[in-house]
Amino acid sequence: MTSSSNSKDETQNKTRRGFLQHTVLGSAFAGMTIASTSHVTAQTLADAEEPEITQSVDVLVVGGGTAGHVAAIQAGRLGAKTLIVERNSQLGGTTTTAGVAFPGLFDAWGKQVIAGIGWELVTESVELDGGTLPNFAKVPQKHWQNQVYTNQFLYAILAEQKCTEAGVEIAYYEFPQSVTKTATGWQVDCVGFGTKRRIQCKQIIDCTGGAEVVGMLGFPRFREEERQPGSYLFMLGEKHEPGRNQIQRLYVHGADSTNSRTATEANLTGRKAILERVRQSKQRLMHMQPETGFRETYRIQGETVITVNDYTSGRVFDDAISYAFYPVDLHTKSGVRPKPLKPGTVPTISFGALIPKGSRNLIVAGRSVSSDRLANSGLRVQASCMGMGQAAGVAASLAARSGSTPLEIPLKEIHSVLREHGQIVPQKA
């Protein structure tokens, strides 16, 4: 390189430095501040350049939402080699990505009825955020008054931490493309951008919300032609304070999470309506969740089907693995009129409702639990889904360890492990 070239480069560098200094000083004088930057370094992955990965695990959890992350943590804590696959960028589902960050209900009629890992996460996120927990000894006038205000952002990263501590591997931005039965369980082929992952596993826990793995395997699912509206959460005009207030909601009628196309349409519809509200109200858009929260999609045909009569009568199933508590809560085009349960009534969830009829080495947790539509409108809420997730994590881990299937694990053993891990197990009167 010539001396004239060196001189030219030095002149250009000085010019660039002068421009940056001028810009920074100018911004400062204009009353603007430049945010400080801190630094962390991501771990270098040995196989990061490999487009195809093959691995073996005991338990594969598909879906990291309300039930899924609890199921994975429980499986990991029991020593099962566990992988959780989630198509989005964080855990928590309805509580975090959809923004319904006031989970419930963990109590009924003056006492706590659901605890365990989900409650552990909720209480730790509230305490870390300096928030307050409701007094479960006091029966509220309205059911929603005992839902727990939770910082959705803290909850998501706490869930990741607890997965890591339990030895659970997390795979974001991936989802199964095919599931094939093998001599020892399943082969699941997942795809993400730049990644093809082949998983050999002994047990699958389907926590997709719509029982999508169940559908891929050809086991029966059902749903109504008309589904409950989804909710898109946002805030206009006022600052949203996570863990302190609820967000404004927009009903998205026709919202359907069946596939990527229908979910895209729901999100586009919601965002378009929010943009129109901003223009009409002349208020600032202060907060908006990244996607619609879906209430209803496919449910499985399980070994047991929980009916609305089972739910509203507080039936204690012989194989009950968790309590549930919420009004019958069917949302329609005219809104929602919750139908509270009679005083003292606390429904339960049958273990058989988590098992797709005729299946082996497969269990479901979350809103796709086997139930009729009205029962499902109460069962689908977060605390109940967390209870299902923990029970599924126990059953899948024990089945993987013993080389059997979840339905063959003695119920007494499932109950014992649930109690050891802080869950409240339903008791016959």
Task: Describe the protein's architecture and organization.
Strand 1, helix 2 (68-77) and strand 2 (82-86) form a beta-alpha-beta unit. The protein is α/β, with parallel strands linked by helices and 429 residues long. The radius of gyration is 24 Å and the shape is globular. The protein is built from ten helices and 18 strands. Residues 1-5 and 15-30 have low confidence and may be disordered. The chain has two domains: 52-224 and 297-420, FAD/NAD(P)-binding domain (3-Layer(bba) Sandwich); 230-288, no CATH class. Helix content is 31%, strand content 20%. The chain has helices spanning 3-29, 68-77, 116-128, 152-165, 212-216, 260-281, 308-313, 373-379, 382-402, 411-420; strands at residues 52-62, 82-86, 107-108, 111-112, 169-172, 174-181, 186-192, 195-206, 221-222, 230-236, 248-252, 285-288, 299-300, 320-323, 331-332, 335-336, 348-350, 362-364. Strands 1, 2, 5, 6, 7, 8 and 18 form a seven-stranded mixed β-sheet that branches. Strands 11-10-12 form a three-stranded antiparallel β-sheet, with helices on one face. Strands 3-4 form a two-stranded antiparallel ribbon.
Compact overview of the structure:
This protein is an alpha/beta fold. The chain has helices at residues 3-29, 68-77, 116-128, 152-165, 212-216, 260-281, 308-313, 373-379, 382-402, 411-420, and strands at 52-62, 82-86, 107-108, 111-112, 169-172, 174-181, 186-192, 195-206, 221-222, 230-236, 248-252, 285-288, 299-300, 320-323, 331-332, 335-336, 348-350, 362-364. The protein has ten helices and 18 strands.
